[in-house]
Write a structure and sequence with these properties.
Layout: E1 9-13, E2 16-20, E3 26-29, E4 31-34, E5 37-45, H1 63-86, H2 96-105, H3 109-122, H4 126-142, H5 147-168, E6 182-186, H6 191-194, E7 202-207, H7 215-223, E8 227-229, H8 234-237, E9 243-247, E10 252-255, H9 259-282, E11 287-288, E12 294-301, H10 307-312, E13 318-322, H11 324-330, H12 336-350, E14 355-358, H13 386-391, H14 393-406, E15 412-416, H15 422-441, E16 452-456, H16 459-463, H17 465-469, E17 474-477, H18 479-487, H19 505-520, E18 524-527, H20 538-544, E19 548-551, H21 556-563, H22 568-578, H23 584-600
Parallel strand pairs: 5-6, 6-7, 7-8, 12-13, 12-19, 13-14, 14-15, 15-16, 16-17, 17-18
Antiparallel strand pairs: 1-2, 3-10, 4-8, 5-9, 9-10, 11-12
């Protein structure tokens, strides 16, 4: 129950309004879309009315006019979207790709063509046809496990809702017209909505839909405002002018906070902002330990718009560029020229920093909807990543040629995912040789001497790491899959998720085996999984001898700060003791006790 049964009291603090309400405190858990904490009044953006449409039949002679009505609605929505793009100032040019991707969806065959066909075949009104097609699209996309693909269906929904508003004549709510300092509460916000946010007025936002991989979340991070997404029913739990706390760090929304909660979060907000200010000032400084060991902290990215975050967070290059998302977004196989242009744009923007391009890693939990592959009972153990590429060499060689060509314009590396045996890397090198010969014949400019690396993410690769090292220039440890495969854990299965822990003795010992093999063979070793971006793990990674880490760009400032507080000799001694421990709890307790103060800082 609420401690203080009183009329709402308003507190002015640090330029923002906080409050204590007589209503009961509610805590909702979602997904942290963008880090940070903000406190203020809720402003409800209600758009759910566009989904309330009725079905009615259309006569044969009226079908053409109904199709025209749909086409006109698409045109009006598209023109409205274009005007938003045209109004962007230079501060938002980096988000232009996202908005232009949405613009293309207005005429996408999956949405536009199918809706017109549904009006013709079912002889129904445009609103119902659009709703029916959208339902089918959502069912298709939600069958796949890949979170990126699932988040792309959000883009389609947002575009269809813009069209639906014009069909039913609903009044749109313009985010840019809001003229008071508030926190937005919405069922969903499109990138076009988010881009209209005025930073001096909108402190943060929360949505029922969406997640950290959505384009809206990416823009929220670029704007630097707190966001919590995927709350499900926040729009039904919050009323206009309710006092809310948005904690984008832990994905929590608190409605009508109690006095103690309010003061606690004011302190947390101040502490977070102070830490961010310190990290921002230090982000471009070298990551050097107390005893002078320099670390190279790089970024994992998959979208061009993330380049801004790479630079802002002081990354020293891109240690992992996931190339499969261009194949997913295009909805067809890209040509060599399209791949070359896209990769070159990334390299040009990041020059003179190095970019490591990981070759196509699909199937398993990432599928290309337009590819007709045989059904697999267990896709995670099936024709995925390099196995798929070797099975379809015409697709693989096209990508390799594009990457080799980009190598003539910047510093890049080539990374092959999911190598499990020596035979696979030998076959890969044959494909690379073929690509080089084709480029020579075609008289194209390219670089044949790009460093070649492999992902170490299956136990067999760990066991034969020394043998694999004879064929490559570097290793990249992909801890996400390595933990999953070595522990036989489905990461999306809540029943066994508790077993997924990077501090498992088996995981730590496997990482040591890979690092030792790389050192023995005198090749570089990088860690590019989520394990690399968690400050809690850093003393262990440092003690194992890792100095090259690649992670989410937002994690870099905290890791850099942590590096400067540690001594490599101490961590090596510390890890020597950990390697003899048998249980996760024993290791985590030992780690917490030894580095409690550093972790707290």
């Amino acid at each position: 129950m609420v401690k203080h049964q009183k009329e709402q009291t308003m507190i002015k603090k640090n330029g923002c309004v906080a409050g204590i309400s007589h209503k009961e405190q509610i805590i909702l858990k979602g997904i942290g879309g963008s880090p940070g904490i903000c406190i203020g009044k809720a402003y409800i953006v209600d758009r759910e009315g566009v989904a309330l449409v009725k079905r009615y039949p259309v006569s044969e002679e009226d079908v053409p006019s109904e199709i025209n009505r749909f086409k006109n609605a698409v045109k009006h929505a598209s023109d409205e979207h274009k005007s938003i793009i045209a109004s962007l100032n230079s501060d938002f040019r980096d988000q232009l790709d996202i908005l232009e991707a949405h613009l293309a969806l207005f005429k996408d065959k999956m949405l536009y063509g199918k809706t017109i066909n549904t009006i013709k075949t079912d002889k129904i009104n445009a609103e119902w046809a659009l709703k029916k097609v959208l339902r089918q699209v959502k069912r298709t996309f939600m069958k796949v496990n890949d979170p990126y693909l699932k988040s792309r269906v959000t883009d389609i929904v947002q575009v269809s809702e813009q069209v639906m508003r014009h069909l039913i004549g609903a009044q749109d709510i313009k985010i840019s017209d809001i003229n008071k300092r508030v926190i937005l509460i919405a069922h969903d916000l499109s990138p076009a909505d988010t881009i209209q946010i005025q930073l001096e007025l909108i402190k943060g936002f929360v949505t029922d839909r969406g997640g950290k991989d959505s384009h809206t979340g990416i823009i929220a991070k670029a704007l630097g405002i707190p966001a919590v997404m995927g709350l499900g029913n926040a729009t039904h739990k919050v009323e206009n002018d309710d006092i809310v706390i948005v904690d984008g760090l832990s994905g929590i929304l608190i409605v009508n906070p109690e006095e103690d909660t309010l003061f606690t979060y004011e302190e947390r907000r101040a502490l977070y902002e102070n830490q961010q200010a310190i990290r921002a000032r230090e982000s471009h400084l070298p990551a050097v330990t107390l005893d002078g060991q320099q670390f190279k902290l790089m970024a994992n990215i998959e979208l061009l718009e993330e380049v801004v975050s790479v630079k802002d967070n002081g990354a020293k290059g891109v240690g992992l560029f996931r190339t499969e998302f261009l194949y997913i977004d295009l909805k067809r196989l890209p040509s060599e020229e399209e791949l070359f242009e896209k990769y070159k744009e990334v390299v040009d923007l990041l020059s003179p920093m190095s970019v490591t391009f990981r070759t196509l890693d699909i199937n398993g939990d990432k599928v290309l909807p337009y590819m007709k592959n045989a059904e697999e009972e267990n896709p995670a153990l099936g024709l995925r990543a390099v196995r798929f590429c070797l099975k379809r060499p015409e697709i693989f060689i096209t990508q390799i040629k594009a990457i080799l060509r980009v190598g003539a314009f910047g510093t890049i590396k080539l990374l092959i995912p999911m190598i499990s045996c020596v035979e696979e890397i030998i076959q890969v090198k044959v494909i690379i040789s073929r690509a080089i010969e084709e480029l020579k014949t075609e008289q194209k400019v390219f670089n044949a001497d790009i460093p070649l690396g492999i992902m170490i993410e299956v136990p067999s690769a760990v066991i034969i790491a020394e043998e694999l090292a004879d064929y490559v220039n570097f290793f990249s440890i992909g801890t996400n899959d390595l933990i999953q495969y070595s522990m036989a854990i489905d990461r999306s299965n809540r029943q066994v998720a508790h077993l997924y822990n990077p501090m498992n003795p088996a995981v730590i010992r496997m990482v040591k085996m890979v690092v030792d093999a790389a050192k023995k063979k005198n090749i570089e070793v990088v860690m590019c999984g989520e394990m690399a971006g968690d400050t809690f793990n850093l003393p262990v990674l440092m003690g194992l001898g890792l100095t090259h880490l690649s992670m989410n760009p937002m994690s870099i400032p905290a890791i850099r700060q942590m590096v400067t507080r540690l001594d490599t000799n101490e961590t090596k001694e510390f890890v020597g003791k950990i390697l003899n421990m048998r249980q996760v709890e024993e290791i985590t307790n030992f780690l917490t006790n030894r580095y409690d103060k550093v972790l707290a800082d």
